[in-house]
Known about the structure:
The chain is mainly alpha-helical. It is built from ten helices and no strands. The chain has one domain: Heme oxygenase-like (Heme Oxygenase, Chain A, Up-down Bundle). It is globular and about 45 Å long.
Amino acid sequence: MSVNLATMLREGTKKSHTMAENVGFVKCFLKGVVEKKSYRKLVSNFYFVYSAMEEEMTRLKDHPVISKIYYPELNRKESLEKDLYFYFGSDWKEKIELSSAGKDYVNRIREIAKSEPELLVGHSYTRYLGDLSGGQILKKISQSAMNLSDGEGTAFYEFENISDEKAFKNEYRQSLNELPVDMATAERIVDEANDAFGKNMEMFQELEGNLIKAIGMMLFNTLTRRRSRGSTELVTAEQ
């Protein structure tokens, strides 16, 4: 039995998608406010999340459902390793750690891979289609906000093995619609996709404190410099 899972996922995750875009960290990011320390922590979390998801999907590549959406060209682990090398140096593996929200995310991926592998479809859809859809925009924002040269620290957004992203997304959606799942399973996949959005939001929210501190420090430094200049100008005028 086939269902229109692509449409179900698009319509069923609209609210979650909007909520994710309105998390403070994401709103700041989309407006070009990106603090490198917070960003590299996000990249670290993504490394663990994608590693878990890609390991499980590779293990399950012959599964009747997972096999239909198993596209190795989507894998992000290696590109994230390049970015981590850029942000942390050659010993990046010793420097990165998984946050609390990141652990919950990874644990959920591992859990369903064992108990209900078909639910991994919800995680694949949430992350990969989002990466393909907004990747180039986010890449440009990152480069501009952190003064990055082309090819530095933004490998995550590059899909070198996908020449036509629009065509690929259409193929992926068609594969979703051809999955051998019934309506009840399709609904559980949509629920899992919403949960994946929630897991992402929790990771973003963890970073808000660091971002607010960084923005506050930048404002403080700016005001301090202005006051210092003002005091100098005042003394000069009085003389």
